Amino acid sequence: MLPEIQDTIAAISTSSGRSFHAIIKISGPEAINCVKDLFVPATRIDIGTVPTYTSVDGYFHLAEDCINNIPAVLYIMKQPYSYTKEAVVEIHTLGSPLLAEMLLDAILSKGFQTKRNIRLSQPGEFTKRAFLRGRIDLTQAEATMRIIRAKSDGELKASIAQLTGTVSQQIKRMKDEIVSLCAHIEAAIDFSDQDIDLISATEIMNKLASIKKNISRLLIQSETGKISPEGIGAILYGNPNVGKSSLINALLGKKRAIVSEIPGTTRDIVEDFLEIEGIRFKLMDTAGIDEEKDTVISRAIEKTQSALERADIIILVFDGNADMGKQSKEIKLDDLTHNVIVVINKCDLQKNSSFSELPIAFKRYPVVHTSALTGEGLEKLKEILKEIVTEGQLNQSSNVSIFNVRQRETLQRSLQSVQQSIKSAKNNESYEFIALDLHTATDTLGEIAGEVTTEDILDKIFSEFCIGK
């Protein structure tokens, strides 16, 4: 543990300028004692003995500045039940910047007079302590900074995804997979003279291919900047009874939506997730376009319109055995985004129409002939969905990558180590070389969450924080 982490630190936590109230945060072993001589509770209570998560009303008296009765509320959190896992006191008082500075000076001066190790916090030191004491990992610490700096809903959502541990969980799963493979390989090395085949070369290659795929999937997420934990929104849109529900069931490989020959069976948005080579899509089956005035149907149509506005990709479904012109007349082109896939469904049935009859306005989009019954065209549809993401066709203005530059670079280095181990395996090199590259990949992944790090990296990350955070 670093020596300076034993100090008690204090800082103004609220942003500069006038506000309704100001917050001064204190963390460390002397957090409670350093305010005892300055704070007078409104009731007869010893703030040193109150339980954690207690708020205490009272007043500060600054004798040296001849200022008394400064109203304040103390929020007391005792170790390890705080953000830093240390004793923490938050002082909430009037929002005068000058008053907050005077209170902070008084607290620091009192600590100096009583020979307590209390000092002004360095930038990001509260969050750094939370990391060093195991409250959060490094990705969550970086997410804290991103939340503070977020300027859009997309940036905020991406930062929250990191803060809740989404990135850390994915990295941990990959590390566990590599460690498991490494354990089998090293066991095979240890028992190489016993004529025991603990893991075959084929098994090693298959597992390495899976690891490479998983790391590549995360890199795709970081490079497209569009993939969120909720997935890419893909909505199936079209007239009633064109086979949207059957199509979504076929794509998912399970019965998720109700299928019926009766038109308009779907009355609500049905959602489920489809993963294509590591890219997560949120498929939405919607109520069909219908001009009837039935109240229930009208509400279903309203939900469909709302989902269309939010969707990243629209899968426009036609019945390949019905009049294309009539179906297209009921589709408002203004409702469509630039990411549209035209699906001509039910191609296993007798065809009464053909691609040439599809209106010109829809021919500019990719067209796929599908059959939910036979599976025809489903793989092509999945390939187009993947290409829309990987080729950067999505509008990235509203979404931000959940990975920062440091994390992407670390993932890339880890992938290179895995690729080197695959090369060694293909060349029938000794298992020791494969294991060595896998150890490097594991250590590199550990840098993302801060399991393997250096003081220089930590200083660089936390120096970008504000004082008081």
CATH class of the largest domain: Alpha Beta
Termini separation: 20 Å
How much of the residues is beta strand, in percent?
15-25%
CATH topology descriptor of the largest domain:
Rossmann fold
Describe this structure in words.
There is one protein chain. With 469 residues, the protein is an alpha/beta fold. It has three domains: 3-137, 2-Layer Sandwich (Gyrase A, domain 2), CATH 3.30.1360.120; 153-225 and 402-450, tRNA modification GTPase MnmE domain 2 (Four Helix Bundle (Hemerythrin (Met), subunit A), Up-down Bundle), CATH 1.20.120.430; 232-390, P-loop containing nucleotide triphosphate hydrolases (Rossmann fold), CATH 3.40.50. The chain has 15 helices and 13 strands. The strands form two sheets. Strands 3-4-5-6-2-1-7 form a seven-stranded mixed sheet. A six-stranded mixed sheet has the order 9-10-8-11-12-13, sandwiched between helices. A hairpin with a 2-residue loop joins strand 9 and strand 10. Helix 4 (138-149) runs antiparallel to helix 5. The two termini are 20 Å apart.
Short description:
It contains 15 helices and 13 strands.
Topology:
Blueprint: E1 8-12, E2 21-27, H1 33-36, E3 39-41, E4 54-62, E5 67-77, E6 88-94, H2 97-113, E7 118-120, H3 125-132, H4 138-149, H5 153-163, H6 166-190, H7 201-224, E8 232-238, H8 244-252, E9 270-276, E10 279-285, H9 295-310, E11 313-319, H10 324-329, E12 340-345, H11 360-363, E13 367-369, H12 378-390, H13 405-426, H14 431-449, H15 455-462
Task: Spell out the key features of this protein.
alpha/beta; Gyrase A, domain 2; Rossmann fold; 3 domains; 7-stranded mixed sheet; 6-stranded mixed sheet; 42% helix; 17% strand; flat
